[in-house]
Amino acid sequence: MKKFNGVMIGGCMVATLLSSAVYAGVCSKDIKVLAQPRASLTLLEERKAEFEALAGVSFNIDFLNENDRRAKSRAEASTTGRYQVYYIDEANVALFAENEWIVPLTDYYPQAYDFADFDPGRIKVGSYGGKLYFAPIQGGGDFLYYRKDLLAAAGITPPTTLVELKKAVAALHDPANGVYGIALRGGRGSGANVWRWMTYFKGFGGQWFDGDTPVFNSAAAVKATETYLELFKYSPPGTSTGSWTEVTEAFNSGLVAMIIESSPLAGMTEDSKLSKVAGKVGYTIPPSPLTGGGYGHGLAIGAKANQTEQARECAGLFIAWATSKEQEMARLEAGVFGDLNRSSVFDSPEFSAKYNSEIASALQDTAKVTSINYWPNPDWPDLGDRWGIILEELITGSRSDIPEALDELEDYAIKLIARRR
Questions:
Q1: 402 in the Ramachandran plot: left (φ > 0), alpha (ψ -120 to 50) or beta?
Q2: Could you report the per-residue pLDDT of 62-97, keeping only the tens digit for each?
Q3: Strand 85-89 and strand 295-302: pairing?
Q4: How confident is the model at residue 6 (pLDDT cuts 50, 70, 90)?
Q5: Does the pLDDT of residue 1 top 50, yes or no?
Q6: Which of 143, 169, 156, 134 minimizes the C-alpha distance to 35?
Q7: N-to-C CA span, the chain
Q8: Torsion on CA atoms 214, 217, 221, 225, rounded to nearest 10
Q9: Which of 15, 18, 107, 338 has the smallest number of Cβ neighbours within 10 A?
Q10: Does residue 4 carry a pLDDT above 80?
Q11: pLDDT tens-digit readout, 121-151
Q12: What is the pTM (predicted TM-score) of this model?
């Protein structure tokens, strides 16, 4: 990191370094941010005075829903570049970085704000081509969520392997008494059914491409699909075309014994206002050989709106302040679990006092198996969404030939590659 160097004492920056005097003159105008609604960003807006005291300027956030945010950010970042800061996610960081619509972040992230404190999994998904482009505002890996009471009553220990998971799911499946063994995402989409399927694909050794050559039409992909379809026999009605919402609502309603889902769900699961199973859930890493599905959304420095080094330093200062330990502690206090990203916050006494102690341990463990399962390429959303359509058809039974389905996807991938040449 080349900017904002300072004196470190005991691993923490002296308080005067974070005073407004240190950053005087860095920012010359208010910062415009394009984002999608999140509770953490609403909290930031309530604390504008803090940033104004620090930087001498304010900020304004324009909120759009996820799909509109993605479309507008692509249009703005590639043309007028009116926003100094963009909210981007793991699915489009490659597109933004490759087209140089955003700049590498760590050169402009003040050292005082301790970037290394972020969860390693969040750092992985914010990177492309060996460079890091966004500071996480939310993200996670995967947990195996399991009903302690149901497993204990059946004499089943939390499964640590896929073989054990299959046996446990079958044994716990009792729809006549309102319990399904597992819930899976069936609805189409690179971030929906494909997101969950990929943990099996990568766990079985699958790869998307070798250079520009598709290699996913493989034994690993066939096995992953067969396994996913086999487990789907134990998933509740409605999930065959459902998303994260249907899966998590089924689990929190007490209808499901186990799910493998993103770690931020834990905050909802332990909230008795949102969950009928609060206090009954255990948390651990996905069973071997499944990988964890690393994802993240974060704040990045726009290139066009920040042509000068000073402008980029200002955007970096805002991002650092917005993702600081102090802001995360405010989110923790407000119960915004899904927007916690720092190891120091997970390890804090405040976190242990607020959440099940197993969650903090599981967060540390799952970071070790968190993987980038998607194809890190600007064309990933296109390819992933196409596979999502085909996979949904396999799940719902409108098609049944798995090798033929993968042949179709491979043809689609070849055309994608040819289009970019």
A1: alpha
A2: 999 988 998 999 999 999 889 999 999 998 999 999
A3: antiparallel
A4: very low
A5: no
A6: 134
A7: 35
A8: 120
A9: 15
A10: no
A11: 888 899 999 999 999 999 999 999 999 999 9
A12: 0.87
The secondary structure of 209-243 as a DSSP string is EETTEE--SSHHHHHHHHHHHHHHTTSPTT-TT--
The DSSP code for 415 is H
Residue 7 has pLDDT above 60, yes or no: no
Provide the token pair at 149: 């009471």
User: What is the helix (H) or strand (E) element at residue 63, kind and residue range?
Assistant: strand 59-63
Q: Which strand (E) or helix (H) includes residue 364? A: helix 357-367
Of 263, 267, 314, the C-alpha closest to 292 is 263
* Phi/psi-derived region of residue 225, left when phi > 0, alpha when psi is between -120 and 50, beta in every other case: alpha
Residues 279-307: what's their mean pLDDT?
96
Give the per-residue pLDDT at 67.
82
Fold assignment, 142-293+373-420:
D-Maltodextrin-Binding Protein; domain 2 (3.40.190)
Domain 8-139+295-346 and domain 142-293+373-420, same fold? Reply is yes
The closest alpha carbon to 315, from 108, 153, 150, belongs to 108
Structure tokens that stand for 147 in this block: 């009903």
Which residues have C-beta within 8 Å of that of residue 123, sequence separation ≥ 6? 132, 136
pLDDT at 60: 98
What fold is seen in the domain 8-139+295-346?
A: D-Maltodextrin-Binding Protein; domain 2 (3.40.190)
Q: How far apart are CA 146 and CA 311, in angstroms?
A: 48
Report the percent of the chain where pLDDT is more than 70: 95
